[in-house]
Task: structure prediction
Amino acid sequence: MTDLALCAVDLTKRYGRLTALDTLNLDVPAGEVFGFLGPNGAGKSTTIRLFLGLARPTAGRAEVFGIGAADVGHAHRQLAYVPADVALWPNLTGAEILHLQARTGPGIDVAYRDDLVERFALDPSKPARTYSTGNRQKVALIAAFATRARLLVLDEPTSGLDPLMEREFRTAVRHARDRGQTVFLSSHQLAEVEAVCDRVGILRAGRLAEVSTIGELRALHRSEVTISYTGAAPDLSSIPGVEAVQPAGDRRLRFTLAGEPGPALRALAAAEVAALTVREPSLEEIFLDYYGTEEVR
Amino acid sequence: MSVGALAAAPQTELLPDPAPGRAVTWLAIRQIRRGGLIVAGLGGGMTALVVATYAQVMADPAAAGGLQALAGNPAIRTLFGAPVGLDTAGGFTVWRVGTVMAVLLGVWSILAVTRITRGEEDAGRWDLLLSGRPAMRTVLIRHMAAVMTVAAATGAAIAAALLAAGTEPAGALLHGAGTGLLGMFFVAVAGSTAQIFPARPAATGSAVAVLAVGLLARMIGDGVAALGWLHWLSPFGLLALSGPYVHNRFLPLVLLAAVTGLITVAALVAAGRRDVQGGLIPAAAGRPPRTRLLASVETFAIRRTLRPLTGWMLGVGAYYLLIGLTAVSITDFLNDNPALAGEAAQAGFDGLGSIAGFAATLFAILALPAGGFTAVRMSAFTGAETDRRLTLLASQPVTRLRLIAAETAVTAAAAAVLVTGAGLLTWAGVTAAGGEFGVAAALRGVWNVLPIVLLSLGAAVFGVGWAPRWTGLIGSLPGVGGFLLLVLAESVAAPGWVHDVSPFAHLAPVPLTGPDPAASAAMLAAAVVLAVAGVGGYRRRDLRS
Result:
């Protein structure tokens, strides 16, 4: 066995004339928490379906711990999966689905599962048809986190969770990492990715645009700062990380800030700042900012 | 500070579509148009073919006499409906295909309504639809109206076929209207059960149960003179009471129309009083886990099959129990009238004078429900894949081969249970009625249809692998398709090879005679080839989700 949890070599998937995934080459080492970012329709779920053998590649290959993705009998002993849009058997209760997943899966830690049911505040006695989107997601998350699989593949797992549950999710990811499990996390939520991931890959229009550590991603992460001041207008033109300085009304200034805020704050000290607001840009803005508005296929 | 006058809003039209309901109607039509065309086409086509054969059948005095003789027998009345007016082409057609078409239209209407109403609601798609301007009642009535239109079109096609053949207009219109109304009745029933139960299987099952009880009530009313009033309680009975080409009575149809209207109104009232994704009967609030049969893919397949199997067993079992109970009366009748038995043999009802012969003819059609069962189960399997319920299981260390093999094996076993149950109930019915019929003979008879049932299953597995959207249809081809082909081929005197394509042409009348091992082996071989090809396709293709 190799020490690569996931490995894609020239992985390509076409649906007729549509190229959903274009020659993806990606390695995810064992033990890493890997964030997989990209706008809607970028091919994230397609990539995951190829890694899981749910879809067959048009060209190239996908491997899970060195096992071909098509050999699901062996490959799936190494992984647990949470789909983006969880559908459950409507007649089974949460507990029954967890039981079924446990008995057909790669083996679970029952005590930890019960602990997760508590922490995610899931009522497992209800039939699945009565569950909300978030509750369905919880069932799949609990089933996946409770396994002892070496790899967790999570496809937008928190889209239906409230902030409290999202915190529990992050804790569970950290526990998984501490146990040595690899986590492959596809997400739209930059804050979540920043909080838990070691490295991120950014997919755009079926191609891998960027693979970088979270530190490099933070460099991309530009905040918009607005100040009002009572002193002299500050000169920010030579401050590293400050860009797009523009007046925002009477004795008000707006600029973007990337990286360490220290130099900018020192430059602002002389201007006697009366108010300061910092707005973090959305992931969408960063994408548009960094990659421009190139044609999405 | 001055308040300036705002410039007039630019005249860009942001008017809402004046008829949002029309979009809902189109949505409903899009979901049923293919099946609707097939049903209406079948209705018109089968009627036209059979009415055209009338002259041919009646030209043969032996055939005509045999039919007439059998028509008076209580058991035949029970099974095929009261054969009134066999002396006209129209009356003959009504007897020959009227009940079959009515059942087909009724079942299709139920499945279509629960699929596009409760099914769509279950899947969460109505949340979006109902967040728009159309209210629940508008959406429901437009969906029901779309299916009712198909029922009306089927009725119109039947009437047109009868009119085109030159039969008496009153009878043609009455039969067409009756069949169409019956379809509408089951649209209303399914629309109501979809409001009562918060899940599609329960809604479909209870509506089908209404159909089965209605059919049984008509059968009992036909067979037992003292219980003739049961006709008034059954939509099929009302259809029979209207007596196209014989009595031409409109009152029963007026009653059927009124009841249909009432049930439709009840469905609409119920729809306005319930939550979206809820039903009048609330979903169970919670229960302790029942983990039996949840230990593996194979046992889970068994667990998912048990409930549908019970439903099918009840319906099919009731029918074959009734056959058993009436078998003695028909054989006695024919034995008391040797001349009639001879005529019956000439008319194609060979060996009806013995219980074994009678049972053999009726065991042959057991392949229809049993084959249909396998097609429906495999279709449910692709349904679970399409709506992603299967995804969590498919991401477990379970090969595709194991997934489909488990489903196929369990379905085959369940179909075997279904036919065995039918055989045992026939035997029990005959025995209870004081007849002589060995349990071994009954079992040999029902097991004889297993090759056709397995051929249906093989075709359905082939569908799962290569054309998952068409699984149900492909799986129905050997059973229902083969039977219809045989009926039509015989009715229109088609060339022998057309006849021979149907598996039913190769089915030996067991227990009257021994089985035909060569034919059975050929069917089983075809089933295996189809299943292996289907499994191959399933392993290679992408899962649809």
